[in-house]
Amino acid sequence: MILCAGFGTRMQDFTRDLPKPMLPIAGRPILEYTVSHLARLGITDIVINLHYLPEKITAYFGDGLAWGVNISYSREDKPLGTAGAVKKVEGILGEFEDFLVLYGDIVCCQNYNKLYEFHKSKSRPVASIILHERNKSNSVVEMNGENKIVRFIERPEREIADKKQNWVNSGLYCFNKSILDYIPRDEFCDFPKDIFSTLVFEEKLYGYPLEGYRCAIDSPDRYEKAQTDFSKGLFTT
């Protein structure tokens, strides 16, 4: 599932007439890089959730056949959050033992098949999430030697003085279908803020270090960086 329902308000005028996943890089929408990358990896069943200017996405991608994938859509009358969006389509995702959830405003060259293999190798995993290191992040993610996440605090109100590691959440997830049991129905619910701390307590959340390029396009500066990085050949279609 690719999450594309947000308003992109931090992008200012860039998202006045476009949902953020449709912002172009070298003439192609951000979302197209993700769809094409998944197709290359053999991941061909895709669900995209929609809310803000949904027709911009559906008109461009249609059923996905032009990219060699099968795209279905979930329209949200009101935004449901990262986890609430997944719960809304449990009838689709629940048919699979495991599935990916990716943020639609992230360009990433990660081999998600390797994330899946890592996820399946763990004992009783409910979620395996990609992590990257950032020295100045105020969020806290800490792993033990077996890559089990032992501490997860998403954007705390005050600085955490005893922070031991510099891992942060990358917004790229692999879930066992049992994750659906943790999410309330028809409510706004967010994975980092509402779900992951429970999984840490139950020892069912794992971290996989990022491999390759990743850029979350969450500000005009990051959008400019992604365009520059593409011109340098750091990622391709």
The total of beta strands comes to 13
> CATH-wise, what's the superfamily?
Spore Coat Polysaccharide Biosynthesis Protein SpsA, Chain A
SSE ordering:
EEEHEHEHHEEHEEEEHEEH
Using the 3D structure, state the CATH architecture.
Alpha-Beta Complex
Could you please say which CATH topology applies here?
A: Spore Coat Polysaccharide Biosynthesis Protein SpsA, Chain A
* Lateral arrangement of strands in the main beta sheet: 5-4-1-6-11-8-12
What characteristic shape results from the CA principal axes?
globular
Low-confidence stretches: none
Q: Largest sheet, described in full?
A: 7 strands, mixed
Mean pLDDT: 93
What level of helicity do the residues show? Answer: 25-40%
- At the first level of CATH, what is the class? Alpha Beta
> How many H/I helices?
7
Kindly give the count of domains.
1
Describe this structure in words.
The protein is of the alpha/beta class. It has one domain: Spore Coat Polysaccharide Biosynthesis Protein SpsA, Chain A (Alpha-Beta Complex), CATH 3.90.550. It is 27% helix and 26% strand. A seven-stranded mixed beta sheet has the order 5-4-1-6-11-8-12, sandwiched between helices. The chain has a two-stranded antiparallel sheet with strand order 2-3. It has a two-stranded antiparallel sheet with strand order 7-13. A hairpin with a 5-residue loop joins β9 (140-143) and β10.
Brief digest:
This protein has 237 residues and is an alpha/beta fold.
List the helices and strands and how they pair.
Elements: E1 2-3, E2 24-25, E3 28-29, H1 30-40, E4 45-50, H2 54-61, E5 70-75, H3 81-88, H4 90-93, E6 98-103, E7 106-108, H5 112-121, E8 127-133, E9 140-143, E10 149-153, E11 167-176, H6 191-201, E12 205-209, E13 214-216, H7 220-231
Parallel strand pairs: 1-4, 1-6, 4-5, 8-12
Antiparallel strand pairs: 2-3, 6-11, 7-13, 8-11, 9-10
